[in-house]
């Protein structure tokens, strides 16, 4: 059998989505949505630092990642596929950006180094893939595949080797990067200061001064914009206004669904194998678990299940989901079990290995000794396979059922997705009555007639409006909410609408603000899974910086300038009051304010109860040191503060484990910042919305 099949039988290679998680251990969420896009070749999905990414290359990589994901998880939903497309794009961006840096630094993995990684199993992925195979066995397995006539196995081996090579190169690069970014001991010491501060305070809220009394000129807005321009860096985006016509089951649809499940009730009652009957006829598969009475959430269903009634309970449900339930089996089972296991990896000779081990155990061999020598579950193997006590729901269902149904002192075997388990039950708690419920679930769905009625309404709205204002007017007449959403080209769709990526593409192709957006069929009605959408293009945002003419930008600047002016007025007024008030009590009385208290605030957590984050206030308190005097007025996020009775604990933590954790977190943050800097300096064009 080909090498890759042997690796596959170990159950590990198929769990690799090659390349998707390549940088996840370092980069995490460093990648944000793409930064710009311009008119390019019709066959190009993007460009990174002048290097084009063709649609064919992109779709090929998406296909590989989807294939690997499907082999691991089975079927994929549309949202899963959308997520994989985004991951693939991020993967290709990462490869281009980091690859360029590696090339300049001379970071590479030689053929000899790759061979060494394979034969010496210095990579944990190699260890998982080849298990206990020796260096010579691995070399023979790889050579066998390379010499075989199976192109699929060869391709899979090539991808696996490329994954290992790329993974190792990135480890070398980020290790090199980390060495240059190490935090100093002094920085660790300073950052490891607890800096917990408590204080009493009064606050004059900005809301005590009406916005209408604070004038902000156009020149002030312009000056603020130019001074703080970096605040307004943007990702090109589109803002839309839209109405959504949800397609929900009508009363007629609900009545039909009720009739369908009612008609099934007699057949269910007479079924000799109720669990199998339910599995065949239910839209949600019954899990087959055994439950105690208090584990069934529906009190009426629980009473029925433990009454000895052999009939069918239901239909019951919320109208959109209807169910029938019947007791399939009854058993006396424990609440918890203590068991040990030997886990045998899936392979060609798995059953032979299991039979041999069972034969030894039945002849009196020591279970702990065999577990330590043979179990691939190394966490429990060191304890002789002991899993300790566990309750229902803590193990995978098939393992749980086998363990709970086996008597104390007995052995049993069971297959799970991890391999074959030889289970020895050591102890069981007291036995209680448990029932196995067979439940048929039917979802009430909208009929074609209902969909057609919703489509007719959506078309009527679309035909009655040519602009966003007209769309709002029609929606108001029909008492329909007009929603708004802003998204980038990389967005998978609207947050409240599944599979709405087509609308994102159409919005980026649209050129006229305030006009309704049309789809590929030249219609303004977008058909989603369970709704119809009519949308208008409210705002096109292009360029590296948001425009000062953008209403949202202008409003933000006005609010900041108003806050600054209010703060100045309040600080002057409070300073005058402090001159004649020696204590916080006296100041509070004079200002008509209530004294509040903040406790145990820190640099990392500047939350003030009832107010939210107030970093400037907390920082001022920490550097005040212990003081009962009144502070000078401090500008905060919610208002202007005056502090008193400040107590600060600046005791450095002596916990070396905490210091190590802090060091690692700081190093990780620095590496992420370094990568983010590379990303932001790269010229990235994202045109996936065109395809």
Automatic annotation (TrEMBL):
<dbReference type="GO" id="GO:0005886">
    <property type="term" value="C:plasma membrane"/>
</dbReference>
<keyword id="KW-0413">Isomerase</keyword>
<keyword id="KW-0997">Cell inner membrane</keyword>
<dbReference type="GO" id="GO:0003755">
    <property type="term" value="F:peptidyl-prolyl cis-trans isomerase activity"/>
</dbReference>
<feature type="domain" description="PpiC">
    <location>
        <begin position="334"/>
        <end position="427"/>
    </location>
</feature>
<dbReference type="InterPro" id="IPR000297">
    <property type="entry name" value="PPIase_PpiC"/>
</dbReference>
<keyword id="KW-1003">Cell membrane</keyword>
<feature type="transmembrane region" description="Helical">
    <location>
        <begin position="12"/>
        <end position="31"/>
    </location>
</feature>
<dbReference type="InterPro" id="IPR027304">
    <property type="entry name" value="Trigger_fact/SurA_dom_sf"/>
</dbReference>
<dbReference type="InterPro" id="IPR023058">
    <property type="entry name" value="PPIase_PpiC_CS"/>
</dbReference>
<protein>
    <recommendedName>
        <fullName>Periplasmic chaperone PpiD</fullName>
    </recommendedName>
</protein>
<comment type="similarity">
    <text>Belongs to the PpiD chaperone family.</text>
</comment>
<keyword id="KW-1133">Transmembrane helix</keyword>
<keyword id="KW-0472">Membrane</keyword>
<dbReference type="InterPro" id="IPR046357">
    <property type="entry name" value="PPIase_dom_sf"/>
</dbReference>
<keyword id="KW-0812">Transmembrane</keyword>
<keyword id="KW-0143">Chaperone</keyword>
<keyword id="KW-0697">Rotamase</keyword>
<dbReference type="Pfam" id="PF13616">
    <property type="entry name" value="Rotamase_3"/>
</dbReference>
<dbReference type="Pfam" id="PF13623">
    <property type="entry name" value="SurA_N_2"/>
</dbReference>
<dbReference type="InterPro" id="IPR052029">
    <property type="entry name" value="PpiD_chaperone"/>
</dbReference>
């Amino acid at each position: 059998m080909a090498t890759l099949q042997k690796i596959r039988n170990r159950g590990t290679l198929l769990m690799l989505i090659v390349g998707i998680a390549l940088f996840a251990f370092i980069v995490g969420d460093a990648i944000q949505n793409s930064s710009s896009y311009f008119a390019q070749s019709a066959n190009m999905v993007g460009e990174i630092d002048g290097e084009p990414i063709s649609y064919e290359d992109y779709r090929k990589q998406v296909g590989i990642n989807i294939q690997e994901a499907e082999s691991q998880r089975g079927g994929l939903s549309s949202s899963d596929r959308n997520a994989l497309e985004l991951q693939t794009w991020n993967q290709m961006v990462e490869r281009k950006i980091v690859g360029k840096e590696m090339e300049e630094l001379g970071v590479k993995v030689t053929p000899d180094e790759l061979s060494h990684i394979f034969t010496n199993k210095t990579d944990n992925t190699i260890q998982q893939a080849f298990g206990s195979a020796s260096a010579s066995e691995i070399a023979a397995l790889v050579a066998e595949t390379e010499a075989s006539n199976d192109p699929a196995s060869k391709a899979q081996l090539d991808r696996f080797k490329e994954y290992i090579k790329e993974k190792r190169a990135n480890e070398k690069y980020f290790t090199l990067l980390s060495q240059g970014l190490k935090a100093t001991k002094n920085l660790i010491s300073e950052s490891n200061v607890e800096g917990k501060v408590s204080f009493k305070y009064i606050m004059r809220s900005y809301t005590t001064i009406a916005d209408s009394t604070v004038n902000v000129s156009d020149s002030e807005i312009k000056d603020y914009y130019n001074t703080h321009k970096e605040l307004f860096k943007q990702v090109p985006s589109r803002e839309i206004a839209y109405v959504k016509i949800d397609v929900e089951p009508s009363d007629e649809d609900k009545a039909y669904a009720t009739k369908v499940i009612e008609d099934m009730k007699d057949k269910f009652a007479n079924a000799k194998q109720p669990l199998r009957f339910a599995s065949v006829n239910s839209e949600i598969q019954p899990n087959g678990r055994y439950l105690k009475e208090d584990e069934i959430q529906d009190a009426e269903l629980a009473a029925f299940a433990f009454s000895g009634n052999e009939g069918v309970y239901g239909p019951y449900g919320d109208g959109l989901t209807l169910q029938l339930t019947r007791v399939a089996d009854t058993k006396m089972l424990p609440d918890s079990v203590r068991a040990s296991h030997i886990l045998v990896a899936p392979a060609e000779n798995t059953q032979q290995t299991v039979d041999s081990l069972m034969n030894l155990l039945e002849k009196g061999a020591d279970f702990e000794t065999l577990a330590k020598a043979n179990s691939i579950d190394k966490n429990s193997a060191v304890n002789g396979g002991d899993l300790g006590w566990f309750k229902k729901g803590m193990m995978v269902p098939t393992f749980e059922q086998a363990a709970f149904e086996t008597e104390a002192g007995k052995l049993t075997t069971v297959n799970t997705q991890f391999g074959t388990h030889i289970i020895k039950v050591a102890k069981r708690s007291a036995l209680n009555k448990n029932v196995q419920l067979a439940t048929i679930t039917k979802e009430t769905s909208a009929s074609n007639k209902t969909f057609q009625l919703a489509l007719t309404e959506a078309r009527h709205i679309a035909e009655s409006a040519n602009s966003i204002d007209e769309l709002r007017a029609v929606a108001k007449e029909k008492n329909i909410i007009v929603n708004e959403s802003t998204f980038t080209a990389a967005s998978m769709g609207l947050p409240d609408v599944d599979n709405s990526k087509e609308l994102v593409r159409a919005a980026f192709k649209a050129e006229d603000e305030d006009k309704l957006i049309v789809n590929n069929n030249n219609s303004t009605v977008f058909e989603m899974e369970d709704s119809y959408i009519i949308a208008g293009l409210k705002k096109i945002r292009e360029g590296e910086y948001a425009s000062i003419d953008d209403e949202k930008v202008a409003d933000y600047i006005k609010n900041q300038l108003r806050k600054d002016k209010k703060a100045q007025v309040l600080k002057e007024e409070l300073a005058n009051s402090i001159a004649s008030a020696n204590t916080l009590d006296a100041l509070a009385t004079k200002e008509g304010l209530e004294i509040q208290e903040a406790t145990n605030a820190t640099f990392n957590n500047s939350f003030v109860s009832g107010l939210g984050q107030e970093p400037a206030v907390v920082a001022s308190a920490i550097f005040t040191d212990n003081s009962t005097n009144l502070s000078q007025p401090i500008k905060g996020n919610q208002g202007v503060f005056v502090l008193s009775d400040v107590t600060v604990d600046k005791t450095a933590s002596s916990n070396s484990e905490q210091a190590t954790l802090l060091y690692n977190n700081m190093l990780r943050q620095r590496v992420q910042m370094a990568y983010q800097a590379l990303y932001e300096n790269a010229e990235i064009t994202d045109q996936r919305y065109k395809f």
